[in-house]
Amino acid sequence: SVDRGAPMVEAGLWYRPSYFPEVGETNWRQSCDREIEMVRTNVGVCDVSTLGKIDIQGPDAHRLLDFVYTNMFSTLKVGKVRYGLMLREDGHVMDDGTTAHLAENHYVMTTTTAAAGQVMRHLDFVHQCLHPEWDL
Known about the structure:
The protein is α+β, with helices and mostly antiparallel strands. The protein contains three helices and six strands, in the order E-E-H-E-H-E-E-E-H.
């Protein structure tokens, strides 16, 4: 990426390319417009390996997810994935991401790269302080 001239940006604990300029492109907008057109007319690949991944298991896993997200995850069928928006206690957005229902009582949540630690701390707080009776 760097050897192709891609400017690198911080994403949590990672550095990743912001865009990939080609010869003759003089600003970021030209590169981004080209990449957008390529995805719309052909195909695009996005490396999301830097996203946070949190494994959530137990008979009350769906209760935790219903509590922290604005939408319901207890209705998510096994083998399906749902997008969710997570709020802080004051109602402000904490993070967003997808959660997959892998098996009965087993989910995997993705978080944004930068907020993975904050989300994990929040999940621990909800479980340990607000709902210690949940079996997770």
